[in-house]
Fold GntR family transcriptional regulator.
Amino acid sequence: MFSAVESRRLYRQVADQIRSMIATGELAVGQRLPPERELAEKLAVSRPTIREALIVLEVEGLVHIRMGSGIYVARKHTIQPAQPEREPFEGPFELLQARAIIECAIAEEAAQRATPSHIAVLDENLQQMASVVGDTNAALAVDRAFHTAIAGIVENAVLIRFTGEIYDQRMTPYFEKLASHFEGPDSWTWAMEEHRAIRNAIAANDPVAAKQAMRTHLDRSQKRFSESFGEEFFGEDEGRAAQRKAKI
């Protein structure tokens, strides 16, 4: 029986509870999990928390995502003797939230300092992105370079290092697994156009517009992650799916 969880990196608690239910047989191999919305209600947590927990379990091989069908128990989990708690890691949505808070402020400051040479660097980056949208690994490298280049405009070594380090935290098996469900040429093309809007605001030396453009970019990035792990994974009927997509 699912029960509400209390705060402490909630997605880890949710993963622990589902893992235990698989171990005891309450969730059997091949069984489909309840819809995301239902899980969130039963566990009294947000839907992003459910997504992060399920990604942990998918990386461990305990559940399997079947596009357009749902999430199923993939194998039996054996309860091990008590061990030290796993090394903590940040969830994908937690990282995106942190990036939004910091990088919006950086973009705002960069817009007040940008020179033509800075804009030339951003323009070159956009050209590179256009040539690699079909290659996720290359696109990731160019994407990282774009965000660190904006921090470079501020000429603060701490911010440059922080921007690079927080971006690199997405290079975990958990974030990569989540990204594998949505990243491709279309998503990178959208990201590139969002980058162009950020570039234009910074080039115009408009701090308000630059901050908003960065916020829009990171909000849309999170939305893409969220939608990729939404109800379509739980056998949503075609009518509801069409209605939801029409609202986007």
Observations:
- Residues 133 and 189 are 6 Å apart (CA to CA).
- The beta strands are 63-66, 70-73.
